[in-house]
Amino acid sequence: MTEATANTQDVILDIKNLKVNFYTYEGVVKALDGIDLSIYKGESFGLVGETGCGKSVTVRSVMRLIEEPGKIVEGEIFYKGNDVLKLKEKEIRKLRGAKMTMIFQDPMTFLNPVIQIGEQVSEMFLIHQKIQKDILDNKKKLSKYLKEKVVEIFDLVKLPDAAELFKRYPHELSGGMRQRVLIAMSIAADPDIIIADEATTALDVTIQAQILNLLNKLKKDLGRTLIFVTHNLGIVAEMCDRVAVLYGGQIAEVAETKALFVDPIHPYTQGLLRSIPLLHKPKDLLDSIDGVVPNLVNPPSGCRFHPRCPLKEDICAQERPKLVKVLPEHWVHCHVKQREYEGKV
Ligand SMILES: Nc1ncnc2c1ncn2[C@@H]1O[C@H](COP(=O)(O)OP(=O)(O)O)[C@@H](O)[C@H]1O
Ligand code: SF4
Ligand SMILES: [Mg+2]
To answer: Which terminal residue of the chain, N or C, has fewer Cβ atoms less than 10 Å from its own Cβ?
Structure first.
């Protein structure tokens, strides 16, 4: 067990020492440098950080969706105790729909433009849910059953006129409605984990709030585990039980959301939060800290934050810190803070 998993909670997803490279003409991009993360069953977990820090690569690794020129070069990802990285392609395909689903920014990538949306959601239901044999064997019964189920799910995700909507095609819907259809497909697949990767970024603020509330309701009512990937701290503050801050392919800090916002420990998180005047105002991370995001072809040695860090010491450039538990439910990746908090838990 990594230190981040040493707790009594039920860990559903356990990422250990995950390293991912991209082999490009410019050189090897060391996108993830030993990510350790444990996600608890039934929580909503936020993954935040500046653009390019490795959020999407982390969650895509969990789904085994890293494509050429990318490669997972080291690490383990346990889902309920099984290493996802060791599963056969057939097994991982099953896991992807049935146990974990991902909602992306652009729903059109996943919706088939020439199939009615009701049918697309039915298909997910049919593939992933157990249906009684007498219904399965009777075409008419099955069609009626699926329609009822899909309309139920459309109601759940607050898609209006569910019965009428069944026959619509994706291009006939607004962006917000398409995003709801995607969430409906996720529910139809009945997964344990729903990953939303900047899923609401392109939507206007009101629709964004509605979708986020909907996802939170799924967590509360259906006990799903949610992973929110976002560069928006406002979303994290409002939506997430716990949060991990990523910097340059390394985890800087993991904590309960309130603790992170009220009492951040890692120098990067501290800088990030200091630069936000009003926490309830959603704010991009992009322009919050002096200096630039590290070049991941030649990343800074040791702690990748050291060129920008006000607390930097010699050791910071020499050795990569460990992600260490410094307080209950609070882990930090920092030599100086590790020493400062030594013995406090
Ligand atoms: N297809 C790719 N080819 C080369 N490099 C990539 C590719 N995808 C991601 N990367 C690298 O991985 C890093 C992390 O990317 P990503 O996880 O998408 O960032 P974000 O935190 O914005 O989601 C990027 O800085 C980029 O250098
Ligand atoms: S390890 Fe060193 S450089 Fe990195 S955050 Fe801590 S003090 Fe700063
Ligand atoms: Mg991303």
So the answer is: N
Residue 267 beta carbon below 6 angstroms from any ligand 2 atom: yes
Same domain as 85, residue 114: no
- Phi, then psi, of 280 in degrees rounded to 5: -75, -10
pTM value is 0.90
β-sheet with 330-333: strand ranges across: 100-103, 193-197, 225-230, 44-48, 242-247, 250-256, 330-333, 323-327
Q: Which pLDDT score is estimated for 158?
A: 84
Instruction: Tell me which residues have their CB within 5 A of the ion that is ligand 3.
Output: 55-56
Please check whether residue 168 lies inside any domain of the structure: yes
Q: Is 248 left (phi over 0), alpha (psi -120 to 50) or beta?
A: left
**What range defines the domain where residue 151 resides?**
107-189
76 lies in the same domain as 138 = no
